[in-house]
Structure formats: C-alpha cells, structure tokens
Design a protein that fits this description.
- By secondary structure, this protein is an all-alpha fold.
- The protein has 2 domains: 9-61; 75-103 and 141-233, no CATH class.
- The protein has 9 helices and no strands.
- Helix 4 (63-89) packs across helix 9.
- The longest helix has 31 residues, at 18-48.
Length: 233
C-alpha cells in the first residue's frame, strides 16, 4: 500500500482532529494572553505598594499566576464532572443535551454494548465483567472528577501562598492552609467560577430546546420540533 505524501497526511490529521486542535490552540493563546496581562497587572500592584516589579519569568512561576489559572481549571472540570453524571439520570424535554425521556439511568448492557454484548471493535475493558468493566464504564466521569479535585487542591495550595504574600506586603500575619480553606478569599475564588459554569450549562440545555445551529451536533436539526428530545443535528 502506497504511503500518502507528508502534506496529505498532515491535512488529513488536521481534518480528523480539527476540533481538538482548535480548542487546544485557543487555550494556549488565551493562557499566553493571561500571562502577559496578569504580569502587567501584578507589577502595577507591586508599584502601587511601593515594591519593585518582577520579571515575566518570575511572574509565571509565582503562586499568584498559578492560583489564577487553577481556579478556572477546577471550575471547568467541575462543570463537566457534574454534567456527565447528571445527564445519566436527569432529563430535559426538548433538549439535545438530554437523553430521550425513556432512557434515564445507566441503560442495559445490550444498549451500552458491554460484557457479552461487546462488539469486536469495542474497547477491551468494555467486554470485561469484573472491576475493569465497572471502572471503564464510569471512566470519563471519574477522570473529570479527579482532575477537578486535583485542580481545586492546587488552587488551595497556590492560593494560600499568594494570599500570604499579600498579607506580608501589607505587614499582616500570614495564615495556615487549613485556615485558608475556610476563608472568604478561597470560597470567593471558587464560587465566582462555579456559578458561571453552572449558568452556562443550564443556558445551553434550555436554549437548545428552542434555538438551532445548523450542522452542529450540539443542536437539533433546524426543522426538529421543540419537544424532540435527545436528537442531534
């Protein structure tokens, strides 16, 4: 079999992975922009406090930058974690973000193609009837939940470091990690992100009942009835 030329392979790779590449590129650009803007803002604050500004490298390796990044990461992964598990059981009539109204729950082994119902091309663990099958059948939610907890933990560690740096600049006593977990600063950082993520998911689920985006799998077909549930365009 003839191997396609390199440019053709590259175009095919981009075509087959366009969605992931688009959002990964957007993430890197946004992260870089956040670092540049955050560095300028941080140095403005230092100058206002009568302190010397820091270099860009020192800023991006600081707890201030880390806590700003991780507080957003944890809220995003919380959103996906809750969405994945909630949509197993909870339904929304007319929304393509919901399963059909008679399919609430984990569904049958036949519907999910697990155990003896696995196909030849099914993932190997899908056919397992022991702990591997149980874990794999919930692996997406478990990984999203694990990343959320890890990001939230990182936010708390970097957050207390950034908080204490600010306390010291203001000649106030630092606090412990345990005390920071119950502080207004920690919960304000967390909740201001959570509420926006939950609102966005709720808006998507409800708006998609009545509004359409032609060609998008996140929308119903343009001519589908408002009451059609679990139908993707």
């Amino acid at each position: 079999m003839t191997t396609p030329p390199a440019p053709h392979r590259m175009r095919r790779f981009v075509r087959h992975n366009g969605l992931g590449l688009f959002f990964l590129t957007g993430f890197l650009l946004a992260l870089a922009g956040q670092a540049v803007a955050g560095h300028a803002e941080f140095n403005n604050q230092l100058t206002a406090d009568g302190m010397a500004p820091v270099s860009f490298g020192a800023y991006v390796s600081s707890s201030d930058f880390a806590v700003d990044v991780t507080e957003n990461w944890q809220s995003e992964y919380l959103q996906f974690f809750l969405y994945i598990f909630a949509t197993v059981w909870l339904l929304q009539r007319g929304s393509p973000e919901s399963k059909e109204l008679d399919k609430a729950g984990t569904e049958s082994d036949k519907d999910q193609m697990v155990g003896e119902h696995a196909k030849e091309d099914s993932p190997r663990w899908a056919a397992a009837t022991d702990w591997r099958g149980v874990v794999y059948s919930r692996s997406l939610g478990l990984v999203m939940g694990g990343i959320f907890l890890l990001s939230w933990l990182t936010q708390s560690v970097t957050g207390v470091a950034a908080y204490n740096e600010q306390q010291l600049r203001q000649l106030q006593a630092p606090t412990t990690w345990g005390a920071y977990l119950t502080s207004a600063d920690f919960w304000s950082r967390s909740l201001q992100n959570w509420q926006s993520e939950l609102l966005a998911v709720a808006s998507m689920a409800v708006f998609a009942i009545y509004l359409r985006q032609r060609g998008s799998p996140e929308s119903k077909p343009v001519g589908a009835a408002h009451g059609a549930t679990g139908v993707e365009g």
